[in-house]
Design brief:
The longest helix is centred in the middle third of the chain and has 13 residues. The protein has one domain: Nucleoside Triphosphate Pyrophosphohydrolase (Alpha-Beta Complex). It is an alpha/beta fold. It is 19% helix and 36% strand.
Length: 155
């Protein structure tokens, strides 16, 4: 695909928050040595909410029943993502209600940890996960949704 025929890709992310206020992060196979939240691409004909449900079921075995948008952000040509030539639009949701038992897929996500958000920041998180967790710490589960453009930093 030539540079001029590329389109932005939409990604949903799920910041799972348990009743103790801990968040789930897991080893992310696509960026070695990094932790991330569950999520993935929105498929053609699928709403963002449908993609969030599908991705969580695929990667964690959980079916979200309560969630809200927390952040919209972008990465243009993120150097650590595939060939570094993508434009990604992230729709990140706080998910605080779900059905099912956690069972990571072991393919995209493994070695999951429930941590206080502040403790999660001590791990090597992906750049977008780190920015989301920092915002969540700042505003909490019911904070206003925001748009955050690409700042040209991070991996």
């Amino acid at each position: 695909m030539s540079e001029t025929s590329r389109y932005p890709e939409i990604i949903v992310g799920a910041l799972l928050v348990n009743p103790q206020g801990q968040i789930l992060v897991a080893r992310y196979s696509k960026i070695t040595g990094r932790y991330a939240i569950p999520g993935g691409h929105v498929e053609y004909g699928e709403t963002a909410a449908q993609a969030l449900v599908r991705e969580l079921e695929e990667e964690t075995g959980l079916t979200p029943t309560g969630f809200r948008l927390l952040q919209v952000s972008e990465r243009i040509r993120p150097p650590l993502y595939k060939d570094g030539r993508h434009h990604l639009v992230y729709l990140d949701f706080v998910v605080d209600e779900w059905r099912g038992a956690l069972q990571l897929d072991g393919v995209e996500l493994s070695a999951g940890k429930w941590l206080r958000p502040q403790d999660a920041l001590t791990l090597p998180l992906t750049y977008t996960t780190r920015r989301l967790v920092e915002y969540y710490i700042e505003v909490g589960s019911n904070g206003p949704a925001r748009y955050r453009p690409d700042d040209g930093e991070g991996g």
